Every structure is written in structure tokens, then in C-alpha cells.
Amino acid sequence: MSTPCVGRLAPDIIENRISVTAGAQDKKGDRAMPDALILEFTGGTADQYMAVNAVLGIDAGTGEGDWPTGLVSHTGSTGAGGDLLVFEVWDSRESQETFMASRLGPALGQVGVPEPTRIEWLSILAHHSD
Predict the structure, then answer these.
(1) Residue 61: how many CA atoms within 13 Å on its side-chain side?
(2) Cα torsion at 6, 9, 12, 15 (round to 10°)?
(3) Are 42 and 114 in contact (CB under 8 A)?
(4) Pick the CATH number of 4-23+33-123 from 3.30.70.3270, 3.30.70.100, 3.30.70.2210, 3.40.50.620
């Protein structure tokens, strides 16, 4: 089965790459903030989301499993129409690109998740988690 998201995400990430890592310093010496990513899959379902997690060896219910290096936080949700939306915070876009190419893209293809209809990187101004 094809890996529909690898070709779609990687060029977008490469084209807009800003080399920012958690704890890195900007030109003023201030600590850099991580980047956030929104992925929206029109036609993607909660069942597909759970199936992708199973392929990745992640238990979204317990938080246990083989989470990728560089992932700060992850939220998977469905919208009012049932479409799949993922919101993630990454230490860098490069970490997400590596995960997409090596593990997530192939898992999305294996499960048959449609290509994302929205891919948006956000510059985080503040981030808090317990």
C-alpha cells in the first residue's frame, strides 16, 4: 500500500524549515520555543487513528509506547463532522520530518488514511503542560 502523506508533508516541511530545537537559543540569546503542527484529514476516522497508533506501537489511551523523539505533546481529535485532526508540539520541524519519513508516513499508508487536507505549522508564543 502507498504512503500518501510522506510526499505531501516532507516538501512542505523542508520548504518552510526553521531550525529550532527546544532549549536552543535565538540570535538574542533567548530560549527558542518549539513549533506546533496541525494535520487535518478530511475523511479520516477515529478508528483509523487508533489503527495507526497500533502500527506505531503507541497506546493513546494510556500514553504508553514508542513515542517519537522530539515530540513534546500530541492531541488526536475528531471534529463535528467526524474528520480526524491532530495537533502536535515538536522540538523542531526536523524531528517531525524524520518521524514522518521513517514511521508515521508508512503507518498512515498501511492503514489507508487519506492525505491531509490541512498541514499548518504554527510558531508557538507560549506552551504549558503538566
Answers:
(1) 4
(2) -50
(3) yes
(4) 3.30.70.100
pLDDT per residue over 70-109, tens digit each?
999 999 999 999 999 999 999 999 999 999 999 999 999 9
Alpha-carbon distance 126 to 35, whole Å? 10
Task: List CB contacts of 26: < 8 A, sequence separation 6 or more.
Answer: 32
Q: How do strand 35-41 and strand 118-123 relate by DSSP bridges?
A: antiparallel
Count the residues in the chain.
130
**What pLDDT digit, counting tens, does each position of 26-70 carry?**
445 555 679 999 999 999 999 999 999 999 999 988 999 999 999
Question: pTM of this prediction?
Answer: 0.75
